[in-house]
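Protein fold
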Amino acid sequence: MSHDAVVKTVAKKLKYYFEVKRREDGFDLSGPNCPRLDHPHLKPRATLQYDGLHDKPVKHYFHDPKVRQAITNMTSPRSRDKVSKEHVVRRKVDHHMARHRFIVSAFN
């Protein structure tokens, strides 16, 4: 599958989720004691089985404020100067999402 085909498919599925699926989930009338879930129940693991990396905030691992800021924002010195691949893909997804309409408006 090509890069553009993946972007188009993801954009279409996201648009469907935003316009249809999320609204359908909002009309769950099953009650608070027995909610209807579309996903399987996951058994929680013990706390000690999780990675220890998330035990402390980032500020305790890196004392230099510039390093801390770069890690928190998920950026690197190289990515600040040029447009990242993530921004290019995000613009393409937004463009393709604008082209799809799953809900027909009465005013169109």
Summary: The mean pLDDT is 73.
